[in-house]
Amino acid sequence: MQESLVPVLEQAGVVPVLVIDNVSDALPLAQALVEGGLNVLEVTLRTEAALAAVEEIAKHLPDAHVGTGTVLNAADIRRSVDAGATFMVSPGATEALLDAADGVKVPLLPGAANPSEVMRLLERGYHYQKFFPAEAAGGVPMLKSIGGPLAQVKFCPTGGVSPGNAKDYLSLSNVVCVGGSWMASSKLVAEKNWAEITRLAREAALLKG
């Protein structure tokens, strides 16, 4: 189910979580991030431009892994697959969402925030999960605690992850990568400051060590 996603997550380190308002920004933004060493990109389905942005990146940057985030239902899954996403990320998980994900070849990284949710996803075969909202749900101490009884699950924490705490997360044995938006803020994108985004991406790429 998640086999194709595992090597992507394990080499990612930091996954930029992108909110793209204008399709024209998609390619230069993705190119700036890839140039900085981040080639696993999550485009959240929070804007009307999101799916077209995924299509643009997938078409022109074949070496990048572009996925969709904020995947909430079966319709989002279908649209993600049609847009060329190579992975999908959800903030949580419902049975309907998981059932829909079972029917497609594009892997899902479902979200969990506590041990019960982690266990329920593990029962469905998800050994890789998003931990969200990471800081609000207990952060590094929570993931350390979960790692004892549920050591077979690895996480990508997102939500409140920053340059100041990313290395703390990445130092945990049950964290495979982290997601964040600091290297591609809405301000930098609006200014089309691709050089600064590349610089921040380069710094982020070094966090995994």
Walkthrough of the structure:
With 209 residues, the protein is of the alpha/beta class. It has ten helices and nine strands. It has helices at residues 6-12, 23-35, 50-60, 74-83, 95-102, 115-123, 139-147, 166-170, 186-190, 194-205; strands at residues 13-18, 40-44, 65-69, 88-89, 108-109, 111-112, 128-131, 154-157, 177-180. The strands form three sheets. Strands 3-2-1-9 form a four-stranded parallel sheet. The chain has a three-stranded parallel sheet with strand order 6-7-8. A two-stranded parallel sheet has the order 4-5. β7 (128-131), α7 and β8 form a beta-alpha-beta unit. The chain starts with 5 loop residues before the first helix and ends with a helix. The model has no long low-confidence stretch (mean pLDDT 97).
Radius of gyration: 16 Å
Q: What's the number of helices?
A: 10
Overall shape: it is globular
Order of helices and strands: HEHEHEHEHEEHEHEHEHH
Multimer state: single chain
Main sheet attributes: strand count, strand direction, barrel closure: 4 strands, parallel
Major β-sheet strand ordering: 3-2-1-9
User: What proportion of the residues is helical, as a percent range?
Assistant: 40-55%
Q: How would you classify the helix and strand content by structural class?
A: alpha/beta
Low-confidence regions: none
Which key terms come to mind for this protein?
209 residues, alpha/beta, four-stranded parallel beta sheet, 10 helices, 9 strands
